[in-house]
Amino acid sequence: MSAENKSIYAALLANLMIAVIKFIAGAISHSAAMIAEGIHSVVDTINQMLLLMGLRLSKQKPDKHHPLGYGKELYFWSFVVSILIFGLGGGISLYQGVTHILHPVEAGDPNWSYIVLALSLVFEGTSLIIAALEFNKLREGQSWWGAFINSKDPSTFLVLFEDSAAVAGLVIVAVCLFLNHLLNAPYLDGVASLLVGLILIVISLILARESRSLLMGEGIQDKTKKRIRQIVEEDKDVISLMHLMSTYQSPDEILMMLIVAFKPGLVTAEITQATDRLREEIKLEFKRIRFLIIQPDVYLDKIDANVQAYI
After folding, report:
1. Model-level pTM greater than 0.85?
2. In what residue span(s) does the Cation efflux protein transmembrane domain sit (predicted)?
């Protein structure tokens, strides 16, 4: 098992182990909420398989059709995962919830449901702890939300959000199941399914927004831009870094273009030596910058405000 994919494998194993028994318990107890939880586990299992496939495809080497590589495969499949959470997980759970609120079904033996919920909380809770520990290693002093927004690796935060939604859903189902049998109110089973569906839809919208942003092409952080500007403008042959453009091709690959104003009077050989020197120094410090293009340009005292905003 790859260490970097530990949280995905843990989530996959947890969901695979409990999906079937949730359906069995739901059928025995006539619980729509348990059926919704079973669907949730199936969707999560499919999601982890798609993430693993996306990770594998993203490691393919560049070829004539994709000269910059296949890194964005991971971003594409993470977007697909967010859509599946919305459509299959959230949509079916909402349907189950509304149906059982309008047409309540008398509850059967709840004992199986309680056993399954307890086991599910153990497995999902363990998976959540592993995902949280893995994500915590990547925070680097940022808040949890800030680390999520700035993360370029959906395989880390997708599992964290999925497991959080799963644990929240299990708690809701357990509470509603208990109240259902205590108060003899079978409509609460539908309410639990409805709440689980709403949680999944909210989570899916958050994940879809971030996955779409990564797929469209996010750039490097401001602190990295400042450091690269410092490296470039400290070079003896440089007047100014006029423009910096960057995009993540994958969590470990950045494509960057620098437009640099060199000192007047330099011959072509000197400019070539300077660009090679800058490229080597930048890539030595920032290992993720795999593709670095440096374009010489004429220095302007007044740079257009729209251009300056990107630097």
Report:
1. no
2. 9-216
